[in-house]
Amino acid sequence: MVKAIVLGAVLLLGPGLSGGGSALAASHRIASLNLCADQIIFMLADRSDIVGLSPLAADCANTVLCELARGLPSMRPTGEAVLARQPDVVFSSPFTAVAATAIARQAGLKTVDLPIAESLADVPEQIRIVARAIGREDRAEAIIAPFRARLAQLQRTMPADRRLTALVYEAHGFVVHKGSLADEVLTLGGFRNMADEQSVFRGANGVPLEALIANRADLLVIDRSAKGYSLAQAMLENPVLRQAYPAPHQLDVPARLWLCALPQTLDAVTRLRAAHARLEAQ
Amino acid sequence: MTHPSSRGLSVMLAAVMVVLLGFALWHGESEISAWHGLCDIMAGRSSVAATIVGQLRLPRALLAVVIGGVLGCSGAALQGYLRNPLADPGVLGVSSGAALGAVCVFYTGLLRLSVVMLPLGGLIGALIAVMLLVGLVGRGGAVVLLLAGAALSSLFAALTALTLNLVQNPYASFEIAHWLMGSLTDRTFQHVLICLPGSVVGLVLVASTGRALDALVLGEDVARSMGFILHGWRGVQTRLVLGVALAVGSCTAVSGAIGFVGLVIPHLLRPLTGYQPSRLLVPSFLGGAIMLLVADDAVRAFNWGVELQIGVLTALAGAPLFLYRVVTLRRSTL
Q1: A252 in a domain, yes or no?
Q2: What is the mean pLDDT of residues A138-143?
Q3: Residue B186 and residue A99: Cβ atoms within 8 Å?
Q4: Which of A184, A265, B163, B212 is 20 to 30 Å from A41 at the Cα level?
Q5: Inter-chain residue contact B29 with A80, CB threshold 8 Å
Q6: Per-residue pLDDT tens for A24-64?
Q7: Which of A255, A211, A241, A205 minimizes the C-alpha distance to A1?
Q8: Taking CB atoms and an 8 Å cutoff, what residues of chain A touch B303?
Q9: In Å, how far is A87's CA from the nearest CA of chain B?
C-alpha cells in the first residue's frame, strides 16, 4: 500500500536525472543521501571515492551490502554536512533530506535524484543512473549482464502451476499491491498476489489480522528483520498468525532484499521459489 | 522610563548574545574553518567554507536570535497583559494555526514543489489564525482573549491530529511528527525572509504597548483612568494580540513549535527587572535569543545518529528551570 502511494507520487512527479549529463571522467568525491544509491555505489565506486553515505547504509536491516559500509564515512543528512564533504556528485531521493538536497543544488553541486524503483526492469536503469553520474559505466555493464542472465533464467523456470496465493504482510498491517517491486517479485516467485484479488485487502490503512485469518493465503510473507519495538511490528508476532499460518505457509523475506531494486532482489525470488516447492510437495 | 539596572542587564545580555552568535558561526556540524569562510565572504570569493558560514550557519543563527527573541518577548508581554504567569505565546492558538498550515503542506504533497512551501503554508495558517482570533475577540477583554485562544488552539490541534490520522504514508506522518518538535536545521535565507517581516512588525506593535502594560499592573480601571484605551480596534489589547500573533506565527511557520522559551525566560528575568512589564520586554528578547542559540549549538554538538530536535531540547531544559523557579517562589512566600 505504502509503496503504491510512493510509486504514484513518483509517477506523477517523475523526477529523473536532475544533475544530468554523463561524466566523462570518474567522480572522485561521491556523497549520497539515498539508501538505494548507497548500495549501488558500493558495487560501482572505488571505496576511496566515497566521501559520505546516508546513515542507514551501515544498517544491516535495510542494506544488503551493509558489511561493505563498515569503515566508510557516514554523513548526517543536513546541508552543512553535505557541503563540508565537498562532493563532485550528491545522490538524493525524492522523499528524504529534501532540504539538504535543495541546499546542495543551490550551492551549485551536481545532484542526482534516484527515483524509487517500481519493477525489476528498473534495476539496470537505477544502476546506469548512478554509473553515468559517477563515470563508471563500464563497471555497470559488468553487474547488469549477470543480473539479466539470472532474471531470464528465473523467468524461464517460472512454475507452471499458478494456483498458489501469497500475501506480503508488513508492519502496521500494510500489504503489498500490484504495481510495486515486491508484487513483481511475488509473481516471479510463482505466486498470485492475493492482495489484489479480494476487496478486504484494499483498505488504505492496513489490513486487520482478522481479515488475514478469514481469507487465508497459501503463503504469508513477513519481514522480521526490522529493528526496534513498536505496536505496528507487534502485529506480525501475534500468536494467532503463527497458528493460522504454520511453518510451510509462512516465509521470512527481509525488507532489505526488495526495499531497493538491486541485483540482490532476485534472492527474494529464489526464496519464494523454495517456499513454492515446499508447498507443492505438501 | 528605563531603569538603570535593567539597561545594564540588557547590555550584558546583548553582549552574551553577540558572543553566542559568533560561536554559532564558528562552530557547526563540520570541521570547516569559519575564519576562511569569513575571509572568503569579505573578499567576495565563493568557496565551500563561505557557503557554509554565510548561507547555512548565518541564517540559522539569525533565526535562533529572531525566533528565540520573539518567543521570549511575546511571553513577557502576554504574561504582563494577562497578569497570569502561565501565559505563553502558545495560549493565543496562533502557533497551533501555523503548525496546522505546515502539516497541510506535508499532507497535500505541496512540499514536492519547493522546500519553501512548508514555511509559507505555516505562515498562511498563522495569518488565518490571527484573523480568526482578532475577529473573535473583537471588543472583548482579557477573559474573552484567553477563551478564544484556547478554543482556537484546541480546534487547530484537533485538525492537526485529524490530518495526522488521515495520512496514509507512514513516512509522511513520521516527518510531520518530527517537524512538530521544532528545528532550525537546514534553514536558509529564504526562511529568514519569510520569518522576518511578521516578526519585526509584531515586535514593534508589542513594544508600543509597554507603558500600558506598566499601567495595567495596577488594574484595568487605573490604566483606563490614565488615558490608555484598552479594548476596541485601536486599543492596547488589539495591538498586543496582533503583534504577538504575527511574530509568533511567522516564527512557528519557519521553525516548528518551540516550547517553553516564552514561558521560562520572562520568569527568570522578571526579578532582575524590578517586576515592571515594560522593562522586561527587551531583556526577554535577548534572553530568548540566548536560550535558542545555546540550544541550537547543543543540537549540533550532540551526534547520536538521530538528530535531536531543538523544541525537545528547550522543553527538556525549560521544565527544570521552571521547577527551580517554583521551588524558590514557594520558599520566598513561606
Answers
A1: yes
A2: 92
A3: yes
A4: A184
A5: yes
A6: 467 789 999 999 999 999 899 999 999 999 888 888 888 88
A7: A205
A8: 76
A9: 10
Residue A159 counted as domain residue: no
On whether both A52 and A133 belong to a single domain, the answer is: yes
For residue A205, the chain B residues in CB contact (below 8 A) are: 168
B interface test, pick of A2, A80, A202 with most B CB neighbours within 10 Å: A80
Where are the domains positioned within chain B? 4-333
CA–CA gap between residue A45 and residue B241 (Å, rounded): 58
> Among partner residues A1, A76, A80, which is closest to B56 by beta-carbon distance?
A80
DSSP string, A211-268: HHHHS--SEEEE-----S--HHHHGGG-HHHHHHS-GGGEEE--THHHHS--TTHHHH
Residue A156 lies in a domain: no
Q: Which amino acid makes up residue B181? A: M
How far apart (Å, rounded) are the C-alpha atoms in residues B7 and B278? Answer: 12
Q: Is the dihedral of CA B69, B124, B77, B232 positive or negative?
A: positive
Of residues B155 and A76, more confidently modeled: B155
pLDDT of A1? 42
Same-domain pairing of A142 and A260: no
Which of A116, A150, A184 is at the close of a domain? A150
**Which of B292, B240, B215 shows the shortest CA–CA distance to B87?**
B240
Identify whether residues A137 and A220 lie together within a single domain: no
Domain assignment present for residue A2? The answer is no
| Under 8 Å between Cβ of B92 and A120 | no
CATH at residue A195: 3.40.50.1980
Last residue of a domain, one of A124, A150, A176: A150
Q: Which of A78, A98, A204 sits opposite B111 (nearest CB)?
A: A98
pLDDT along chain B (334 residues), means of 10: 71 96 88 84 85 90 96 94 85 90 87 83 91 87 89 94 82 81 90 94 94 89 88 85 92 90 91 89 96 92 78 88 83 76
Q: What is the pLDDT, as a whole number, of residue A14?
A: 34
Mean pLDDT computed over every residue of chain A = 83
Residues in chain A with CB shorter than 8 Å from the CB of B48 are 83-84, 86, 107
Question: Which homologous superfamily does the CATH classification assign to the domain defined by B4-333?
Answer: ABC transporter involved in vitamin B12 uptake, BtuC (1.10.3470.10)
Domain interval for residue A48: 14-150
Cβ pair B52:A172 closer than 8 A: no
